[in-house]
Amino acid sequence: MMPAARLRVLCALLTIFCFLQQARADTAGEFDFYVLALSWSPTYCKQEGASASRHQCDVATPFRFIVHGLWPQYERGYPESCPGAPTRIDRDIAVSMEDIMPSHNLVFHEWRKHGTCSGLSPEAYFDLTREAFEKITIPGAFRTLTKRGKAAPATVEKAFRLANPGLTEDAMAVTCDQGELEEVRICLSRDLEFRACQEVDRKSCRAGSLFVPPPRTR
Which of 114, 180, 182, 183 is catalytic? Predict the structure, then answer.
């Protein structure tokens, strides 16, 4: 049986370890890389229905891939809602991002959960988000799709790799929801260069195929 004094020391060390781990997870600017999450907007609009963002799902301006977020990541896990940064940001920032993040609530949420951990000001963080988005070439098939399609997750990945030289299969993940394309997540260094990310890659959709809803037209 472990002596009481030794047990107390062990418990104290475990408490300190857990505290340090939590402190690391909540420290703005301390992370290893970014994940650029590109959401297939037609899936969101279809599945959310009347609850979806009215601007994002307006048939007059049909969106395709939009930015869900630019997420600071550790090799394993990620920080979120880091203290020390302002939690509220100017509405003008949301307005400036409408062409690639067409929901103000999404912009505000992404700043609170992920942007606060970037170590950047709100303006710099969303400038970087736009820079990351503009680095990615969306494959032609997704820029012109008008009818419901079907593809294997590996086929979606291949289309992105062919459209983006240097992007490898271990640097991205395709996710699905209810059998439909949800997101393409691309791993980028802090300098926005493609880089491998095993934990993200392992979370790819395992379905043999998935449906790709078209943008709303009516």
Answer: 114
Measured between alpha carbons, how far is 187 from 198 in angstroms, rounded to an integer? 10
Q: What is the pTM of this model?
A: 0.87
Structure confidence by residue, pLDDT tens digits, 117-155:
999 999 999 999 999 999 999 999 999 999 999 999 999
Fold annotation for 30-212: Ribonuclease Rh; Chain A (3.90.730)
Domain boundaries, the chain: 30-212
Nearest-angstrom CA–CA distance, 212 and 38: 14
Pick the catalytic residue from 68, 157, 180, 183. Answer: 68
User: Are residues 160 and 186 in contact, defined by beta-carbon separation less than 8 angstroms?
Assistant: yes
Catalytic residue among 30, 75, 110, 193: 110
Q: What is the pairing mode between strands 210-212 and 33-40?
A: unpaired
- Residue 180 known to be catalytic: no
**Catalytic residue list contains 104:** no
